[in-house]
Amino acid sequence: MPERKTIAAYLEAVQGQIRWKRARPLLVRELERHLEDQRDDFLKEGKAPDEAERLAVEDMGDPVTVGTELDRIHRPRPQWGLLGLTIVLAAVGVFLRVLFRLPYFRQDLVLMRALASLGLGTAAMLGMYFFDVSRLVRHARALYIGTLVMTVPLLRFVYPTYSFSLMSALYPLAYVLWLYSFRGKGWKGLLLTILGGMPLAAVCCLIPSASGLFILLFSGLAATLYAAGRDWFGVGRWKGVGAVLAVALGLLAFLFLKGYLNSFLLRVMIALRPELEKEHRGYMGWVLHMFWEDVPPLRSAGGEAAMPVNTGAWVFGGGQEFRPIDFSHDFLPASMAVAWGWIPLALLLAALAALLLWLLVKGLRQSYLPGHFVVLAVVLTLGFQTLFSAALNFGFVLFSASLPLVVGNFQTVVDMALIGLALSVFRGNSIAREGPGRPIPQRKRLRIKFEYQ
Amino acid sequence: MELEKSLVSGSMSLLVLKLLEGGDLYGYQMIAELRRRSDDTFRLKAGTLYPLLHSLEEKGFVTAYEQTAESGKTRRYYHLTKQGRSALQEKETAWNAYARAVGRVLKGGACLAGA
Q1: Taking the alpha carbons of B55, B56, B60, B66 in that order, is the dihedral positive or negative?
Q2: Contact between chains at B65 and A73 (C-beta distance less than 8 A)
Q3: What is the pTM of this model?
């Protein structure tokens, strides 16, 4: 074995045994500090510099054994199962978008665009999967400001809603990064965190994007409560939770006093009972309710009531067909249920819910705290999108919402990128390191245990 | 007194967890503290300690965080988690039972096998 008498040579030998390149600097830094401490102590004992360094190195043990042991512990944890499930769901989305395409779109482009979205989405997901998520955390505030600045120009568009619907999926993540940056900053940090949500909410109102606003509000509230519950700001767990709830209730009271809440409750009532205003604001919901009255669990292909695939339509006197998707792409799931029965839709929603639940449980079980927040933002965003889309498609028409990975080509790319980001947290968990500061007390771990590759 | 390596290695995680029960420490402090508390009996090599600490972190028994000391150097401190505390209790119970059993055998004098 060659002699390694200097710290640099010793560390190089250790590094040589660690196969995961990203892990090397993090692991070696700790050993280097230890060697320096040991060398300095030998110097204090009166040893010559060369001898002090040599003795420190000898005291550390065989570098090959140390490096091999560290290599065994620190390996990337592949997430092929979840990556595969995401691609399968996105492929189902491609299939559905092609099958339930709108007749007035260029038919030759529908398949090409859908396939391109799957290809781009997979590339974006893998790109984020191999991305070092700690970089996001290091530049948390800059990313928050960047996201906000990127979306403001959309306000100048004549029809900004569609472009914004793609960007709004990033708002909860931007807010959570902003929140993360106020760790241990006390009441001022909590206040600034909440204030940070306001410009994002204001853009949602100006666009206007009701789904973007509600996803931001619900996700933001859930993430802030989660942070306060872990005493993220250092003001005390219950005080923090109480303050966040007080702000949320205060906001509701303000909206009530301004009269916004009344008009919102009226919209909710119409969404629940659309037949009360079937010729006006409840029309869409009423039509969907009518569709759902004829939806069996499973529409048999050879049965009397069978409808041809890609139909699921009402046929009017002139032979003109009408399907839920003709309202908008967001109603693709309802069209699918009308054509095939509600069981295929229930299975699709269950698969999405399983993916998100899996992400959430894994996210909250891993030890890297910033990762908790990133996963929480991704799961809350996609979870609320799924929930709102399901409500919309079952006839509760309050605002538009696209089913993640299924509706919308660009939306699929954004959704897949977000899932890739969440998976990168799990992949690099073994070497994920928090910045300076004492650890936040750990909550009781979730008892649910998943076995996975 | 020099101890056989195998005697020490089996109980090393117990000793490290026990050290952390008293407060957060960084690696260099742990080695010094272990030597002090064992009257210089346990001279743990740093090359053994760090892989052990990382595997304890992997199991969720300890968490680590960086903090800048007064000297200006950034240290990586280890903190015993709730899970680590219960693992420590289990290991201590097992160790005490083992030590009592060994003690009884050693005090027993002549072998009674076959009696």
Answers
A1: negative
A2: no
A3: 0.75
The per-residue pLDDT string of chain A (453 residues; one tens digit each, 9 = 90 and over) reads: 455 578 999 999 998 888 888 888 888 889 999 999 999 999 999 999 999 999 999 888 888 888 888 888 887 777 888 999 999 999 999 999 988 876 666 777 888 999 999 999 999 999 999 888 878 888 899 999 999 888 877 777 656 666 677 778 899 999 999 999 998 899 999 999 999 999 999 888 887 788 888 999 999 999 999 999 988 898 999 999 999 999 999 988 888 887 777 888 888 898 899 888 888 888 888 888 888 888 888 886 544 444 444 445 555 555 556 778 778 888 999 989 988 889 999 999 999 999 999 999 988 877 677 888 999 999 999 999 999 999 999 989 888 889 999 998 999 999 999 999 999 888 776 665 555 455 444 444 444 444 443
- Distances in Å between the Cα of A95 and the Cα atoms of A239, A407, A431 are 50, 11, 39
* Closest chain B residue to A437, measured at CA: B67
Say yes or no for a CB contact (<8 Å) between A31 and B50: yes
| Residue of A37, A436, A442 with shortest CB distance to B82 | A442
Q: Which CATH architecture has domain B10-97?
A: Orthogonal Bundle (1.10)
Enumerate the domain spans of chain B: 10-97
Quote the minimal CA–CA distance from B97 to chain A in Å.
29
Mutation target for B interface from A69, A440, A443, A445: give the one with most B CBs within 10 A.
Answer: A69
Tell if the CB–CB gap between B65 and A33 is shorter than 8 Å: no
Q: Read off the tokens for A20.
A: 């995961």
